[in-house]
Amino acid sequence: MSVLFETSLGDIVIDLETESCPKTCENFLKLCKVYYYNLNAFFNVSKDFLAQAGDPTATGTGGESVWSYLASTSSNKSSNEAKEPRYFTPEFRPKLKHAKRGTVSMAVAPAIDASGKEMQGGCGSQFFITLGDNVDYLDGKHAVFGHVVEGEDTLEKINEVFVDQDSRPYKDIRIRHVIVLDDPFPDPPGLIKPPSSPTRPPDNSTRIAEDEDPLFQLPEEEEERIRREKAAAASALTLEMVGDLPFANVRPPENVLFVCKLNPVTRDEDLELIFSRFGTIMSCQVIRDKKTGDSLQYAFIEFDKRDDAEQAYFKMQNVLVDDRRIWVDFSQSVARMNNQWSNDIKRGKPSRVGEGFGGRADLERTKRYRVDDTARHGSDGYGMVFDVPGHQSKRRKHRSRSRDRGDRTRHESSMSPRDRHREEDRHRERDRDRRRDRSHDRDIQRRR
């Protein structure tokens, strides 16, 4: 009768002495059948002496017989626990000795009588495998019930592991799986084989995991990549704390283009007209200086769809605009999101369904960040790098122009036809002078 132990260091096959030690072998086989030993650790390894396992707590004080285990897991737990003791009487056989390496023996727990004298105890679930020959001083103290017939190389690996002062291996050696090759004993009442093996170790080990290599090193490129990712995450968290980023894991919008190397005379309307052939443009803003209001020669163009932005990126790269070769890239700025999101209550319109915050729909669902009204932040776009004293936003300019246009229309309606024609000629001549001055500025810039 044999049992196969699949350990983290290799396989071990154990032949059992079922005729000489029937109760011990039945206890061992039934514990194997209910996966009691699966993921148990070898918690005590002494070089050239023994390797001990079978305690789910990995402390040396746990474990019980299969009959006690079945009683504790049955429905009528209170009545059965009093009937079934934790240990059973060990079966010592004079012909079974600890003479050869690979001898499998049940660990006998000591018992203390009422007077405090130590007496012979019983066997539960703990067992050990000898790692040396002629360990005869264990005879009569622990009950032999089997021998290792395959897996000498595994025993050698176990014998060479590094242990601490308590003989506990620094790196866990675990029984990954147990396969009962032959079981001649009928199952006791109440024994139900679990549908699957456990997936978590029963003990709370803080040692090196059995599938972990403490000496493993990643390639230099991979380590550098991980280091850069950690540094970027730390920097993003710092920027979130100082208020430069609305959220550390924010992602730049994918429908916004960054255009640079612009001609200083290029206006928002010019870029919007040029890029509008690729799709609907939500906003087009040239960033300007805080004091003078002059163009800083870069802009942000927001498309309605990401595909339109991608097409513009590929088609407009290095294109000549106002005698300048522009450079187009996807925006890495989240300034607009920072203007539109806050932790305050929601006052403005919600974002589109599925977009979330910075491309993260989970933040939209949890509503950690909400849209704020544009009046609170003064602008609904990127705006200027710094505020310009007396400078009006584009929307305010548009409104003032509309008001001027309306006033002029009302004024012209009260004029005579001759005066109205003179006024129109005057406006036409002023517009012609403005276009001539703009063309002259472009010629100067071209000569430079």
From TrEMBL:
Subcellular location as annotated: Nucleus
Source species, domain of life: Eukaryota
Record InterPro entries: CRIP, Cyclophilin-like_dom_sf, Cyclophilin-type_PPIase_dom, Cyclophilin_PPIL4, Nucleotide-bd_a/b_plait_sf, RBD_domain_sf, RRM_dom
Pfam family, one: Pro_isomerase
Domain PPIase cyclophilin-type: 6-180
Reaction catalysed by this enzyme: [protein]-peptidylproline (omega=180) = [protein]-peptidylproline (omega=0)
Domain named RRM: residues: 255-333
Keyword vocabulary terms for this entry: Isomerase, Nucleus, RNA-binding, Rotamase
Keyword Cell membrane applies: no
Biased composition (Basic residues): 392-402
First-listed, main subcellular location of the protein, grouped into a coarse class: nucleus
Biased composition (Basic and acidic residues): 368-379, 403-448
GO MF terms, alphabetically ordered: peptidyl-prolyl cis-trans isomerase activity; RNA binding
GO cellular component, one term: nucleus
Signal peptide boundaries: none
Biased composition (Pro residues): 186-201
Main function: PPIases accelerate the folding of proteins. It catalyzes the cis-trans isomerization of proline imidic peptide bonds in oligopeptides.
Family: Belongs to the cyclophilin-type PPIase family. PPIL4 subfamily.
Protein name according to UniProt: Peptidyl-prolyl cis-trans isomerase
Organism: Agaricus bisporus var. burnettii (strain JB137-S8 / ATCC MYA-4627 / FGSC 10392)
Origin organism lineage: Eukaryota, Fungi, Dikarya, Basidiomycota, Agaricomycotina
